[in-house]
Known about the structure:
This protein has 15 helices and no strands. By secondary structure, it is mainly α. α7 (130-145) crosses α8, α9 (170-194) packs antiparallel against α11 and α10 packs across α12 (239-281). The radius of gyration is 21 Å and the shape is flat.
Amino acid sequence: xxxxxxxxxxxxLSPYAVHSENSRGREREEEPCPMRTDFQRDxxxxxxxxxxxxxxxxxxxxxxxxxxxxxxxxxHTLDVSQIARSLARCLSLNEDLAEAIALGHDLxxxxxxxxxxxxxxSLNPAGFKHNEQSLRVVDKLEKDGKGLNLTYxxxxxxxxxxxxxxxxxxxxxxxxYADLIAYINHDIEDAIRAGYLTADxxxxxxxxxxGRHTSERINTAITDIWRESEGKPYVRMSAxxxxxxxxxxxxxxxxxxxxxxxxxxESAERMLRALYTYFMEKPSELPVLYLETAKxxxxxxxxxYLSSMTDRYAIDLFQRLFVPxxxxx
Length: 329
């Protein structure tokens, strides 16, 4: 089966795609799988990791929304994966590589969305970035400290999926675009559902470029990238669509992200700061997984623990540690 995949890639992939048999490999050598390519194995390892499972209870934008159809960090990740696969397929890139990067790109994200990331960045003297933490999760923290031992290409793509990143492969560039397309468009949908804005409030020039509905906007973005990038050694949007997407992103930050975040910012900051202080003062109460790191870099160990938490777990832990129980003295 694996050899058949190699042959298909030679026949159908773009000359600018990464071929699975040409991967730069893993940090620790392993016995090859007779059925799956290395990128397919990476995808499977991420899906079955504990960090991936926890994404279902981590905030995307709206914390504890009153409804079942809002994006969580997990549904956002699946959305990114689907868009990345569509882009990789139409550009004849390695779909397995793009999928693995997409599925792993947010594994290190904090509870309470980007609020949690900002809080940990302010508390840790070395700072905190969720893309760097995602790489740390797959390299160090998963499998009880052994890590997932992913391929170089997947690890690099995870690290460089942010706007400031420098993707080394076109598949990683695809994921960077997919992340942007996914969170802007479905966050618009969630914001309208939550009553933060109406469809008529969106920048009309951007609406004219992309359309009024989520599926239309996503399809337009994918089609534009395909037309601009097919057969080329790069992945990019046309200038008109890129400008319109930036306009939508700026609009969302001004009218949704900052406004929605203010509703949970104070309580989320209070909880995370209290938990951070508690474990800095009592490092012996950290779970065993983080004790070795705590000996040399306690702030990093505490951030490892806090960033791994789901929203629900962080709240429950805060209540156990700081909220007086009924009948206590």
